[in-house]
Amino acid sequence: MAEGTLAKLARIRGGELSAAENVASALERIQELDRRINSFIELNPNALAEAEAVDRKIKRGERVGKLAGLTIGIKSNINVAGLRATCASRTLQNYVSPYDAEVIKRIRAEDGIIIGMNNMDEFACGSSGETSAFGPTDNPAAPGHIPGGSSSGGAAAIAARLCDLCLGTDTGGSIRNPASHCGIVGLKPTYGLVPRQGLIDLGMSLDQIGPLSADVAGTALLLETIAGRSDNECIMLKVDRVNYSELLREKSLKGMRIGISEKFSELTDPAIMKVIDGQIEKLRDLGAEIVEVDLPNLERGLSAYYLIVSVEFFSGTRKFDGRKYGRRIEDVCGEEVLRRILRGRYISQKEYRGKFYQRALQVRTLVRRELLAAFERVDVIVGPTVPKLPHRLGTKITPMEMYAYDYLTVPANLAGICAGVVNAGRVNGIPVGLQVQGRVLGEPEVLRVMQALEAAG
Amino acid sequence: MNIKIGFEVHQQIATRRKMYCNCPTNYQDVPPNTNVCPICTGMPGAKPLPPNQRAVEAAVEIALMLGCRVYTNQTIYIQRKHYDYPDLPSGYQRTSLPLAGGGSLLGVRIREIHLEEDPGQYDPLGGNVDYNRSGIPLVEIVTEPDMKSPEEARNFLRALVRVLEYTGKVRPEAGGAMRADVNISLEGGGRVEVKNVNSIKGAYRALRYEVIRQREKLKRGLGVERETRAFLESQMVTVPMRVKETEEDYRYIPDPDIFPLILDEGWVEKIRERMAEPPHLRESRLISEYKITRAAAEVIVSERELADLYEAVAREVDPKLVAIWFRTRLKKVLNYMKLRAADIKFTPAQLAGLLRMVRDRQLTPEQGELVLRELAKHPAEPEKIIARLGLFPIKREELLPIIARVIEENQKAVEDYRSGKEEAINFLTGKVLQLTGRRADPREITRLLIEKIGKK
Fold first, then answer.
1. Which residue, of A282, B39, B243, B338, has the fewest CB within 10 Å?
2. Is the domain of B171 the same as that of B193?
3. InterPro entries under this entry (chain A) (predicted)?
4. Which residue among B80, B91, B258 sits closest to A321, beta carbon to beta carbon?
5. pLDDT of B28 strictly over 90
């Protein structure tokens, strides 16, 4: 087992490992391994210089931030000034960000080092990492298989230990799905907890930026850096910063009520369910009370999700009209992006509004109510993350087969709640992640359960 | 013939900051694309800031002044209106659902009031876009088709602009800040919408043109189809717009990045309490309260500051006298000096002092006007101005010899007057006035002249 995030951070802060050395070794590993994995689209040419600045601070005994010298990969749909936010698309292939997203400002303020821009499914439209205009990403934890998506590059980079932490985004599972397939930790925060200023749109009412890391401590650390109120944005919860790392000191699960649902096994590959059930037993052993919850409409979320996301994506992509950023999106994008734009354009027509979009919003309300009702009885709900194992890279699958990867992850986005993923074991050598869903702002409980399982090994 | 005319008027709200970002709004004073940021240029990933409260407040105030009911304590979504044009950086314009409605002005019903944002400015010749204007708040006022002639429509727009100016929260109309879409239909024909109208005069001309065009078509039995036309200001005609532009579906969706507006009832009531009295209501009140003529009241309420000044002075001096002065001499002085009422520097007390002297015949009205002119240029106590100009009324002992001298020196005119040429007396009065250095009251001179000439 490699060194944990906190241990490495302690070595950097203590002057044992310089930030520059940390960056240099990350760059070396990327140089060596990423030609095959393809998890980065672009590297930050200033990373070493930024690390040296952190080292100087440490040497002078100045206060350094909580991410001091850690290397952080950023999904390519987040603006980092001076780097390209391509969204892994031809339409933005030459778009150099003129500004930092709010989350990037927060990372810089804590002395994190942006190492580069991660590969992803084009415009976050995909669950396999194969729709990138910059080529597919391999799964380092199960070579030859898809890493999952759409935060494919970030998850793969963490799995291959190319950097310490990554920022992904999750609209319908895009952090959790690749975290599960790559055997790492990831968390989709409560909607409105993390500022989206600077995040390029997929489905604005669903998008959240969140952390990917090798361990739960890393996820907590990055989450507490980026989360919390911002007055520069409308749709934000008015919550102050929370120190999640501090809360993780509570190791016991005694008194915690953990929900499970039969619905999960109905929708999921039995081999995966077997691994998940093993973890649930472990939770019981750790002192948690396991409670059955009823989620009768869970699977209805998927079609509602794809209608909502398509309409919002259609709207959000109207600015890529070919006048300002390279070529018009419809002229150069991949199949899945085009499919969503056309679907969004079709169902948002005046005559279909009541038929599709409004109906989808009603289903969303239904799913949300159902989940929120369940959370009146339990603190978290655990289950599988993805109902099936990742396919081999390059396998032709239908759009519906691709969308089916998302059955278990979209409900959290529709409900606006939080959900994290921690590795649960393997099936045929392929990692399988356990999903822990929490209530609105239930990140502390979710992280606590994830950490307990991680510690139990 | 039955004509129906309605408007959608767009007016920029004069906020310091744009609607969804902190860029300044003085777009006409700065080089192109300097008042811009990632938000108002729609850069990838840029999210709107919370809506500018001052713009919301201004729209509510305008709605209240137009007698609308404000839709309080309910969600008012900000929608995305999608269309593809170079001046629109995100491919959609943000426009609120109605935040008020059911008002009226000059008998024209106000259907609804919206908040919108201005797009940038596209120059098709150069192919350039200037985003300085992008994101400036707009209020949209939609009327019912209640106007029956271009003249009535013009009067309505004038009254509307006056209401908007009264709020003090819109950009002056002179800056081209008002834009209107005009709807017009004649009995038996389809409804025609005319876009690109940028002034009251433009709206009037477009309507006149449309009345003639549609009437001719109907007369010849050709029918008028429902369509959207563009007004060409330079040629004073309207031309059809491409079908594509008129059949657009804007695919409205609530903007997922902005919380819907909820207007608190208490807050709206506070705005109502402190808002200015709307000019059309103020006009009626002035007439009944001060017993002045409608003609005078109309002039007085033409500018809010002028009406404020009137009421302050009318409390001190006879309101009717003040009204006459406002309508005639003050208006004349302001026009001559190209001053707006807002630019007036003298105090109501100074003007009241002057009018009191006129009332007490310490000054002739003509002298009063001279003092007023001075007052407008270099505000001071009227007594000081009078002393500076040497304007004290002439004494009778001094006036009589001058009259005698003028009669003596202008015997022909005297004879003319006696033989029935009335206007000869004006000539003589003028002569006397000149010799007194304009210090005597011409009416008094005439009276004395007739007395003398008659005596002989």
1. B338
2. yes
3. Amidase (IPR000120), Amidase_dom (IPR023631), AS_sf (IPR036928), GatA (IPR004412)
4. B91
5. no
Is the Cβ pair A348, B253 closer than 8 Å? Answer: yes
Is the pLDDT assigned to residue B433 strictly greater than 90? Answer: no
* Arithmetic mean of pLDDT, B347-362: 91
Residues in A touching B53 (Cβ below 8 Å): none
End-to-end Cα separation, chain B, in angstroms: 67
Query: Least CB-CB distance to A98: which of B43, B84, B91?
Result: B43
Cβ(B235)–Cβ(B210) below 8 Å: no
Question: Last residue of some domain: B242, B269, B296?
Answer: B269
Mark yes or no for CB contact B47/A312 under 8 Å. no
Q: Is A174 a catalytic residue?
A: yes
For chain B, percent of residues with pLDDT exceeding 90: 67
Specify whether B234 is located in the same domain as B302: no
The mean pLDDT of chain B is: 91
Strand A113-118 to strand A165-170: parallel, antiparallel, or no bridges (unpaired)?
unpaired
Alpha helices, H only, B262-390: 265-274, 279-290, 294-300, 304-314, 319-325, 331-336, 348-359, 365-377, 382-389
Gap between the Cα atoms of B20 and B52, Å rounded: 6
Clarify whether residues B199 and B313 are in a common domain. Answer: no
Chain B contacts in chain A segment 76-95 (CB below 8 A): 77-79, 85, 87, 92, 95
Q: Quick check: B251 and A345 CB within 8 A?
A: yes
Q: What is the pLDDT of residue B173?
A: 57
Report the C-alpha gap between A438 and B411 in whole angstroms: 111
- Per the structure, the count of domains in chain B is 3
User: Is A75 marked active-site?
Assistant: yes
Strands A257-260 and A380-384: parallel
CATH number at B429 reads 1.10.10.410
| Structural domains in chain A plus CATH codes | 1-457 (3.90.1300.10)
Judging contacts by C-beta atoms under 8 Å, the chain A residues touching residue B253 are: 311-312, 315, 348, 357
Q: What pLDDT does B456 receive?
A: 43
Q: Which of A79, A232, A315 sits opposite B82 (nearest CB)?
A: A315
DSSP string, B63-87: HHHTTPEE-BSSEEPEEEEE---TT
Least confident of A45-54, A180-189, A348-357: A348-357
Of the candidates A146, A347, A161, A377, the one whose C-alpha atom is nearest the C-alpha of residue A256 is A377
SS3 content of chain A, % helix, strand, coil (to 5): 45, 15, 40
Query: Which of A258-267, A395-404, B428-437 has the least mean pLDDT?
Result: B428-437
Confidence band for B58, pLDDT divided at 50, 70 and 90: very high
B176, B293: one domain? no
Q: What ipTM score was computed for the predicted complex, to two decimals?
A: 0.94
Put simply, the answer to whether A319 touches B45 (Cβ < 8 Å) is no
pLDDT at residue number B389: 83
**Distance from C-alpha of A347 to C-alpha of A310, rounded to nearest angstrom:** 9
- The reply to whether B102 and B201 lie within a common domain is yes
Domain check: are B37 and B186 in the same one?
A: yes
B50 touches chain A (CB under 8 A): yes
The verdict on a CB contact (< 8 Å) between B251 and A314 is: yes
Single out the residue in B389, B405, B438 at which a domain terminates: B389
Q: Give the CA radius of gyration of chain A.
A: 20
What is the nearest CA distance from B15 to chain A, expressed in angstroms?
A: 18
- Token duo for residue A100: 């930092």
**Range of the structural domain that residue B369 is part of:** 277-389
Nearest in space to A337 (alpha carbons), one of A86, A80, A37: A86
Q: Is-contact A184 A423, C-beta < 8 A?
A: yes
Query: Are the beta carbons of B194 and B224 closer than 8 angstroms?
Result: no
| Inter-chain touch B249–A349, beta carbons under 8 Å | yes
B367 with B406, same domain?
no
Task: Using CB atoms, pick whichever of B45, B91, B259 lies closest to residue A85.
Answer: B45
